[in-house]
Amino acid sequence: MNWLQLVIADFKALLSDKDIVLTVFGGLLFYSVLYPLPYLHQVPTEQKIVVVDHDNSSLSRQLVRHADASPKIKIVSQVASINEAQQWISNGDAFGLLVIPEGFRRNLLLGKGATLSYGGDASYFLIYSAVAEGLVAAGMDASKQVQMIGLLARGENPQQIQQDLNSVNLNSVPAFNPSLGYTPYVVPGLFLLILHQTLLIGASILGAGQWRKQGYWQQVSPLALITARIAVFSLIYSFFSCFYLGYCYYFYGVSVQASLGQVLLFMVPFILSTAACGVALSCLFVRRDLPTQVLLLVSMPILFVSGFVWPLALIPEPLVQASQIIPAVPAIMGMLQLNQMGASWDAIMPMWLQMWGLFLLFILLAYIGVRRRLFSKEGASV
């Protein structure tokens, strides 16, 4: 059996395996719709908050009206204590709270200043950001009105007051997420993780189902089998990568900064290293059900150590360093910098070279594992 015949045989084995077809073809198409679905409401607006008003003055009620008029937040209730407000947040009935201290109006009119307290559910970054932004804006507006009343009472020129109070205007322009929505924030990295995990599962299932059986894979050398299998999965995932990073990015409105050539060049070592990793991992299993269980279990940790949904500074450094052996980690960070942030090729070159290094490493590990499986009379029982 020559190499081309081996590739064709691997294609037939893959397409005749219902579990692999369901994971690779069905799963990738299904996940392209399922995972972005919760994030389709792009910008978090009118987040529910509760108010704890210890002052109960005309100025505090005006502040509450200003906050409720903000497009970012919506006042759903006024409660008597902070503990009651926390209970609202814990029950999911609100996402934040505003605490107005006692003596709020008196202190402002006396020029002493007052401290407003904000809080929110930080489990959802963009929701928390919307709550904080809306409440800060409302507090600043109320502060300006109080200052204006005081200056007018002293006989100041109204036009000069307006100029003094609004001497600095902020023009906030988002750099890498123009819509400030969930989709451009989550989907780009998540799509690469889906490609990574489904490829590993498909390659592992194919190998795990063959090692203890007789077949064409025992009629060729380990290196020929490895390269043929990598070629098969790389070809399939080249198509799905174009679908995910092309059509899906366009459909979901994900911003794209890199050129087509740069994206294709960056994806080459990612697909090859992931395919080689899948072949190497397949040597650890002889039960077809285990790859899916194990790889789905580690999907969430990979999501966090990749650094785009959780700050790496909050993850133990040894864990971050150990995660660099996973192809998805440098791929996600490099692609986000290149495609969403517009980084130069020089900036992502270390991650590109890292994936080529992982490809060589997994080729070696796959050769050792496949050779052991093909020439072992007993086989391991994982």
| Amount of helix | 55-70%
Quote the beta fraction.
5-15%
The neighbouring-strand order within the major sheet is 2-1-3-4
Tell me the domain tally.
Answer: 2
In whole angstroms, how far apart are the ends? 30 Å
Order of helices and strands: HHEHEHEHEHHHHHHHHHH
Please summarize the sheet with the most strands.
Answer: 4 strands, mixed
Low-confidence stretches: 377-382
Average of the residue pLDDT scores: 82
Radius of gyration, in angstroms, nearest whole number? 28 Å
Structural class: alpha/beta
- Number of helical stretches of at least 4 residues: 15
Shape category: elongated
* Number of DSSP-assigned strands: 4
Structure in words:
The protein is an alpha/beta fold. Helices cover 63% and strands 6% of the residues. The protein contains 15 helices and 4 strands. Strand 1, helix 3 (58-69) and strand 2 (73-79) form a beta-alpha-beta unit. Helix 8 runs antiparallel to helix 9. It is elongated.
Q: What descriptive keywords fit this protein?
A:
382 residues; abc type-2 transporter like fold; 2 domains; alpha/beta; elongated; four-stranded mixed beta sheet
Secondary-structure map:
Elements: H1 3-15, H2 18-34, E1 47-53, H3 58-69, E2 73-79, H4 82-90, E3 96-100, H5 104-109, E4 117-120, H6 125-153, H7 158-165, H8 182-208, H9 222-251, H10 260-282, H11 290-297, H12 299-305, H13 317-322, H14 328-340, H15 345-375
In short:
By secondary structure, this protein is an alpha/beta fold.
